[in-house]
């Protein structure tokens, strides 16, 4: 009888029986005792974590006449200690051999067996050694790879080497403390420019957690949020300089800036900054910029540039205006005063002429000075060319021999001036006697020498 694939369970007492044609039965007694022994491989402890200590124990219950030498196998191949911490320890008392791994690494995981050297049939069964370790080599992949257009979708996937396998994945965005999502994959639909940035995942099993490296999500979009700043801000004095700067949010960055002035179709300049030196009043107006990249173009809102005149020029213009207004007011008042004075003097002369009509003509009270008083503005303008530069008239009236101090009035006649003419003057002097010294009309007629009239009309040569 042949027993193949002999096992320890095959150990027993075996007997055989003979049967004859005459129904005879014969059995051996006692039978044959078969003791099946084997080589066993034991692992202590039964499971181990990376960095711990592992001991492999190989045993046999076979009765040998010598101390056996054991052979170790890993994944079907003969293996030997690879570090000084791994050593074979013979044990004559138990006829065993130990293989120690200290510390254990992931590379120690696999299928192990042992056997008795020189006895091909004395081999142990295989035992699988599992090394427990925290997540390692955690990484993130992005799909689709390359450029990601705004409005499309993207999926991030986290991978990690761990035993036992990772049971929890958490997603984070760099600079943001709160988690974005959980699960081995993280999908972003209808992606926006705000989703641009760096992401990473956290892998965790029952031993520890580990973060992956960062992966960049680059969302591509056209220009947006365009604005224009003015330096210096506020009022800009004529003759100074001003710089307009255009800012825009775009990915990839804006590669072309164009400047326009409102109501003007042709561009004023190009570049992110537009400088105007020695600004003038005609540079005032509203300006805007156009930002463009390969995904589109967009205009900014208009910004106003207000050019102010220099303060000295403004002060000069205001001063001249004030002086001119004051001169006009003074001249108007002077002409009004002259007109009123001329009218008053003419009325007094007419009254006196009426009083002295009955008296002798040998001593006239005053001469006719009607040519020297103002009649009307129109007449003065018409006769300006025929009049002399200066006119003086003095009239003295005396009704008493005792009167020494003459009474006089001065009238200045203002004529429209030309380059060759000057101002005309008229002076009238009257001396009215008091009640005590007043002469009667008859007495006045007897003393004609007291009554006189002088008219001076100096003439200046015209140039």
UniProtKB/TrEMBL annotation:
Which residue numbers delimit the Ig-like domain?
Answer: 30-130, 135-220, 223-304
Could you tell me which SUPFAM superfamilies the record lists for this protein?
Immunoglobulin
Q: Which UniProt keywords apply?
A: Membrane, Transmembrane, Transmembrane helix
The residue ranges crossing the membrane are 313-337
One Pfam family, please name it. Ig_3
Top-level taxon of the source organism:
Eukaryota
Region Disordered: what ranges? Answer: 344-367
Compositional bias, Polar residues, is annotated for 344-365
PANTHER family linked: B-CELL RECEPTOR CD22-RELATED, VASCULAR CELL ADHESION MOLECULE 1
What name does the UniProt record give this protein? Answer: Ig-like domain-containing protein
Q: Which organism is it from?
A: Esox lucius
Upper taxonomic lineage: Eukaryota, Metazoa, Chordata, Craniata, Vertebrata
């Amino acid at each position: 009888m042949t027993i193949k694939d002999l096992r320890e369970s095959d150990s027993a007492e075996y007997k055989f029986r003979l049967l004859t044609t005459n129904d005879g039965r014969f059995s051996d007694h006692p039978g044959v005792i078969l003791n099946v022994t084997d080589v066993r491989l034991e692992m202590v402890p039964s499971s181990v974590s990376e960095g711990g200590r592992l001991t492999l124990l190989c045993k046999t219950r076979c009765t040998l006449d010598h101390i056996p030498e054991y052979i170790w196998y890993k994944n079907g191949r003969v293996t030997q200690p690879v570090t000084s911490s791994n050593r074979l320890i013979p044990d004559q008392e138990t006829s065993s051999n130990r293989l120690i791994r200290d510390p254990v690494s992931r590379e120690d995981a696999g299928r192990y067996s042992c056997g008795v050297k020189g006895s091909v049939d004395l081999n142990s069964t295989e035992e699988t050694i599992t090394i427990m370790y925290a997540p390692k080599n955690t990484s993130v992949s992005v799909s689709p790879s390359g450029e990601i257009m705004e409005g499309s979708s993207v999926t991030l996937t986290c991978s990690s080497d761990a035993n036992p396998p990772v049971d929890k994945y958490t997603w984070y965005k760099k600079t943001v403390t709160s988690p974005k999502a959980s699960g081995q994959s993280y999908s972003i639909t209808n992606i926006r420019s705000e989703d641009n940035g760096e992401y990473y995942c956290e892998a965790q099993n029952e031993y520890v957690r580990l973060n992956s490296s960062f992966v960049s999500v680059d969302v591509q979009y056209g220009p947006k949020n365009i604005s224009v700043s003015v330096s210096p801000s506020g009022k800009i004095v004529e003759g100074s300089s001003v710089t307009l700067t255009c800012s825009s949010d775009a990915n990839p960055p804006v590669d072309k800036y164009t400047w326009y002035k409102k109501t003007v179709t042709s561009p004023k300049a190009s570049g992110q900054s537009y400088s105007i030196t020695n600004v003038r009043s005609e540079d005032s107006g509203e300006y805007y910029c156009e930002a463009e990249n390969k995904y589109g173009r967009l205009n900014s809102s208009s910004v106003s540039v207000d050019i102010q005149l220099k303060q000295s020029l403004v002060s000069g213009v205001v001063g001249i205006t004030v002086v001119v207004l004051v001169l006009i007011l003074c001249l108007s008042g002077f002409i009004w005063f002259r007109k009123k004075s001329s009218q008053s003097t003419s009325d007094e002369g007419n009254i006196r002429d009426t009083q002295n009509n009955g008296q002798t003509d040998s001593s006239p009270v005053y001469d006719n000075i009607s040519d020297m008083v103002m009649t009307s503005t129109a007449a003065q303008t018409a006769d300006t060319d025929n009049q002399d530069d200066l006119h003086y008239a003095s009239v003295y009236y005396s009704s008493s021999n005792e009167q020494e101090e003459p009474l006089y009035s001065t009238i200045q006649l203002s004529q429209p001036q030309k380059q060759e003419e000057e101002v005309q003057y008229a002076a009238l002097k009257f001396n009215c006697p008091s009640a005590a010294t007043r002469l009667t009309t008859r007495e006045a007629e007897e003393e004609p020498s007291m009554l006189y009239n002088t008219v001076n009309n100096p003439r200046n040569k015209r140039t």
